[in-house]
Design brief:
This protein is mainly α. Helices cover 68% and strands 0% of the residues. The longest helix is centred in the middle third of the chain and has 28 residues, at 55-82.
Length: 113
Amino acid sequence: MGVHPGASLAPKQNPTRIRYRIVLMLFIASCFSYGDRVMLSITGIAFSKDLHLDALKLGYLLSGFSWAYVVGQLPAGGLLDRNEFMEQASCAGRCAQFWRVLPAFYRRPPRSS
C-alpha cells in the first residue's frame, strides 16, 4: 500500500475553537483602536492646546492610525504566506502592546509662560 503524492502522513485532527478566540481578540482590539481614533478626533482641539501642537502636528497624530495599518499590513501578508500563523499572531500581539505602552513614557515639554 503506497502513499499518494501530496497525502499527509500526520493523523487527521479535528478543528479547534481557538480561531474564535483569536477573532474575538482582534475584534476587541479593533474596538479599542476605533475608540481611540474617535476620542482623539473629538477632543483634538483641546488636546492640541494642552500639548501645544499646531494643526500640522495634530494632523500627523490623527493620520498615525492609518500609517500604522499601512506599515503593519504590507509586510504581514508576505510573512503569513511563508510562516506559521500562530507565530506571527504572537509576534504581532507583542509589537502592538509595545506601541500601546510607549506613549506612557512621553515627557511633556515645559510650558513657556
